[in-house]
Amino acid sequence: MADRVKQIAAQLNYPKGMLAGQTAIITGSGQGIGAEAARLFANEGAKVIVSDIDGKKAQSVADSIVASGGSAIAVAGDMLDDAYLKTLVKKAADFGGGKIHIIVNNAGYTWDGVIHKMTDKQWDAILALHGTAPFKLIREASPYFRVKDGEPRSILNISSTSGIHGNAGQANYSLAKAGVAGLTKTIAKEWGPNFGVRANTIAFGHIQTRLTQAKEKGAFITGPGGEKIALGIPEAQTKAAGPLMHADIPLRRAGTPSEAASAMLAVVSPLFSYVSGQTIMVTGGRNM
């Protein structure tokens, strides 16, 4: 996929990469889809700000990009901390020579529970992370997007099929991810006419990440108050599905982080220069 993107870029006369000269903030890019996107964006010439709550992982991704000849810095912190958002935007602008061109709101996790057992803490934490934090980052970075310098500006908000169709056990996540699409359309309508800012949403289906791996592998994130939140899907649930696990996906498999990141690159690239305000389903055909 990455090689095909390079071929297209060469054909379109982007010898230094489709994102050459652009500065991109990618939240949650210390691992998984975000890390793949950071490397891919850098490979296409972007100056990448690796944003993640895990400083060691963020630095590792940035170091790998620099070692490969790309340009990146790590700015670690908590997306729920307003002071961090200010620092993130300032360091990104400084790194980009006073400009920011791309924001990818990718950071997040799930904290599931059926409706009648979901706590206020679960509800508030997921809405804050997936809804309020992206809004606050975009608002903080608005001076760098509401400009008329002839350069491209793009905001990509990551959603999920849970936000499109709902999902049992994910009332909080479904509401937050549904709201992401509304935020995206509002940005497109407010900042498109005078500033040419494009804003789009990608709704991912089943992608191979720590959120979809076996819960028994022990992946967790530290939530509000230091609480450990287990990530993943119980093995019993996936075993019960058996060969029908991907039966409703026309491609009959889960997507890879690389495929997910490639879709993200495509949406922020010149290949999608006339696409704005859209929710793009990256699902292998599921939920057509």
Automatic annotation (TrEMBL):
Keywords: NADP, Oxidoreductase. One of its GO terms (molecular function) is 3-oxoacyl-[acyl-carrier-protein] reductase (NADPH) activity. It is an enzyme of class 1 (oxidoreductase). It holds the Pfam family adh_short_C2. It catalyses: a (3R)-hydroxyacyl-[ACP] + NADP(+) = a 3-oxoacyl-[ACP] + NADPH + H(+). SUPFAM superfamilies: NAD(P)-binding Rossmann-fold domains (SSF51735). InterPro entries: KR_dom, NAD(P)-bd_dom_sf, SDR, SDR_fam. Gene3D superfamilies: NAD(P)-binding Rossmann-like Domain. This is 3-oxoacyl-[acyl-carrier-protein] reductase. Residues 22-194 form the Ketoreductase domain.
